[in-house]
């Protein structure tokens, strides 16, 4: 990679930034492999560009995550209660259980075929309770799995899904690395994320996360229509990417780029309809299962509402209304931040805040939901110290939920008591709030924003980058976007 020794403030040429150049934690960590790279370190190995390195790293980390599930693969998933092996070894996954319980082993067609109670074991589950594109992902994996309903077939279903999800993980890293042209190495944090390794094969969330990251990449390249297509497909796989459209709307409103937002919105709606309309038309009850199940689902693991319910003894029958009210209040605050801040926030910052608001206010916060925030956190606050603090809180919660379930599902009650589990919930929510506080500070005081210290506006903002404010409620900061300044030295 070309070394950059001096760069004038405001110079918009796409010089690459290495984490060891501008991040003290990354520089200190590099001492384990010989210290920060110099300008000639890679001169003889041009094949080892950042993208190829990160692809190999994420494949390695994903493989380690699969190895972590080995004790469950060899039997823990298939032991009947009161065995707690899949929880005590923290290797639980929904995927092998869904193979039988949602009818893939019996060749039932998702959304069209009714799932017998003897399979699902739940009075609330009549059809597959996942969005349509995720259901298609699961069905394709079942086609690639050897036919049968035995333990070996369930194991192979998990292997096939893991292979497909590994492709999603690679795509995710590539998208994050290429979203900001000047900071390709930011994708390395996604590739090395311990939370990614631990949670990637719990469920199918990584599929939607990769699609959403692809949408942000295309937006950063000035392709709002195609960005909308991928965001719409992501919303057809998991509902949360709809919030990215809200973040885009606020930023486009302030920047006077509503025409581009309209193209994105129209493309997103169109892509979502293309995927969903056939199922709505021919299997309306199956299509609606995801939405009815989400509405009827009670307070569940990982949410602050569970702490309130357990501590108060109140079943919180109105948790849907409470959660919606909190989410609306947080969205009003985020909208005010977008329109009143001295400079227009970056897209990564807004996207991270709005998805974090959903997770904090939601009635369930599953451990794999950390994947929703992972690429957005890197785009919002690419600082290794802060990201590692947040990841540490998430890993602690990953262990906490399984040890809590081990306590509840074993006769000997080995694991976490309710009080200890509530503490684990609090730690992982505080980890998210910590990162949110830093992002809000960066928005209100742009001089602290690492991506703006070189005079940039929003390198991943596409048509928003460098745009003048057209609608602002506060007092905007009028900073010249192309002003020259004294050179700022970079470490070599």
The Cα radius of gyration reads 23 Å
Listing every helix as H and every strand as E from the N terminus to the C terminus, the arrangement reads: EHHHHHHHHHHHHHHHHHHHHHHE
Kindly state the number of beta strands.
2
Give the CA-CA distance, first to last residue.
12 Å
Family: Belongs to the glycosyltransferase 87 family.
Subcellular location: Cell membrane
GO molecular function: hexosyltransferase activity
InterPro entries: GT87, UCP010361
Report on this structure:
The protein has helices at residues 19-22, 24-29, 50-68, 70-73, 85-88, 94-101, 117-120, 132-143, 151-179, 187-192, 194-199, 205-220, 224-237, 242-255, 258-282, 284-296, 304-312, 319-340, 347-361, 370-380, 384-409, 418-444; strands spanning 6-8, 487-489. With 492 residues, it is mainly α. It has 2 domains: 1-48, no CATH class; 49-476, no CATH class. It has a two-stranded antiparallel ribbon with strand order 1-2. It starts with 5 loop residues before the first strand and ends with a strand. The model is unreliable at 1-14, 40-44 and 480-492 (pLDDT under 50).
Short description:
The chain has 22 helices and two strands.
């Amino acid at each position: 990679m070309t070394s950059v020794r001096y760069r004038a403030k405001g110079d918009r040429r796409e010089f690459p930034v290495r984490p060891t150049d501008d991040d003290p934690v990354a520089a200190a960590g590099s001492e384990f492999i010989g210290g920060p790279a110099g300008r000639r370190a890679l001169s003889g190995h041009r094949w080892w560009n950042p993208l190829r390195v990160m692809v190999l790293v994420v494949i390695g980390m994903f493989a380690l995550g699969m190895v972590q599930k080995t004790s469950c693969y060899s039997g823990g998933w298939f032991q009947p209660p009161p065995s707690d092996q899949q929880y005590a070894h923290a290797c639980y996954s929904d995927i092998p259980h869904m193979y039988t319980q949602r009818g893939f082993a019996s060749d039932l067609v998702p959304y069209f075929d009714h799932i017998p109670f003897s399979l699902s074991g739940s009075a609330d589950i009549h059809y597959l309770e996942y969005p349509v594109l995720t259901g298609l992902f699961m069905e394709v994996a079942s086609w690639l799995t050897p036919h049968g309903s035995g333990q070996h077939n369930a194991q192979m279903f998990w292997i096939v899904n893991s292979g497909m999800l590994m492709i999603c993980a690679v795509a995710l890293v590539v998208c994050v690395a290429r979203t900001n042209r000047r900071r390709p190495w930011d994708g390395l944090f996604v590739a090395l994320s311990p939370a990614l390794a631990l949670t990637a094969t719990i469920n199918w969330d990584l599929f939607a996360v990769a699609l959403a990251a692809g949408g942000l990449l295309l937006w950063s390249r000035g392709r709002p229509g195609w960005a909308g297509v991928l965001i719409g497909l992501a919303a057809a796989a998991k509902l949360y990417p709809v919030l990215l459209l809200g973040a885009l709307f606020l930023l486009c409103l302030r920047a006077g780029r509503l025409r581009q937002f309209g193209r994105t919105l129209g493309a997103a709606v169109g892509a979502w309809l293309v995927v969903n309309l056939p199922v709505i038309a021919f299997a309306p009850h199956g299509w609606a299962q995801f939405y009815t199940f989400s509405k009827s689902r009670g307070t569940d693991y990982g949410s602050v509402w569970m702490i309130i319910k357990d501590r108060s003894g109140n079943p919180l029958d109105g948790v849907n209304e409470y959660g919606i009210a909190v989410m609306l209040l947080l969205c009003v605050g985020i909208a005010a931040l977008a329109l009143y801040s001295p400079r227009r926030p970056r897209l990564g910052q807004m996207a991270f805040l709005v998805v974090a608001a959903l997770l904090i206010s939601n009635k369930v916060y599953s451990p794999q939901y950390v994947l929703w925030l992972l690429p957005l956190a890197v785009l919002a606050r690419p600082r290794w110290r802060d990201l590692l603090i947040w990841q540490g809180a998430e890993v602690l919660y990953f262990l906490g939920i399984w040890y809590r379930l081990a306590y509840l599902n074993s006769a000997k009650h080995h694991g976490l008591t309710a009080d200890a589990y509530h503490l684990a919930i609090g730690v992982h929510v505080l980890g998210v709030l910590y990162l949110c506080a830093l992002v809000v500070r960066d928005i209100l005081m742009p001089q602290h924003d690492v991506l703006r210290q070189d005079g940039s506006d929003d390198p991943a903002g596409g048509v928003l980058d460098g745009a003048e404010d057209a609608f602002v409620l506060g007092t905007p900061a009028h900073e010249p976007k192309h002003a020259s300044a004294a050179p700022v030295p970079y470490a070599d």
